[in-house]
C-alpha cells in the first residue's frame, strides 16, 4: 500500500514532507517508504543531506538504507556494491541509483516527490 505525505511546491517542483530533522542523525540514514517499488534512502553526512533510491539494482533489494557509509559513498550490505551518494553511480559498473533533491527547512526534511516510472515492457500493453 502506498503512503501519502504532505506536499509543497518549490522551484516548480513538488516536494514531500518526510520527517523532522531530528529523526535523521549525522552519519545515519532513513528509508522513506512510498511502496514496495518506490523507496528513498536519505543520508545525513557532515550536515548535508543526500537522497538515493533504497533499492539496489543488483538484486532489486530494498537495503541501501542499511548500507555502510564511508566518505560520500554507501556500500550495499548484501554483496558490497559501492555507490556514490552524490551521483548514485556504482563504482566500477554502469549500475546507478536514482538520486533525488532533498532539503531541510524549519526543522523539517523535504524530499523531491518520487515518481513511479512504468517499466518499458509494460508501455505497450
Ligand atoms: S543486492 Fe546490492 S550488491 Fe547485491
Give a description of the structure.
With about 120 residues, this protein is mostly beta strands. The chain has one domain (about 5-115): Rieske [2Fe-2S] iron-sulphur domain (Rieske Iron-sulfur Protein, 3-layer Sandwich), CATH 2.102.10.10. It has no helices and 13 strands. The chain has strands at about 5-10, 15-20, 30-35, 40-45, 50-55, 55, 60, 70, 75, 80-85, 100, 100-105, 110. The strands form four sheets. It has a four-stranded antiparallel sheet with strand order 1-2-13-12, with no helix packed on it. The chain has a four-stranded antiparallel sheet with strand order 3-4-5-11, with no helix packed on it. A three-stranded antiparallel sheet has the order 8-9-10, with no helix packed on it. The protein is globular, with a radius of gyration of 14 Å. The mean pLDDT is about 95. FE2/S2 (inorganic) cluster binds next to loops.
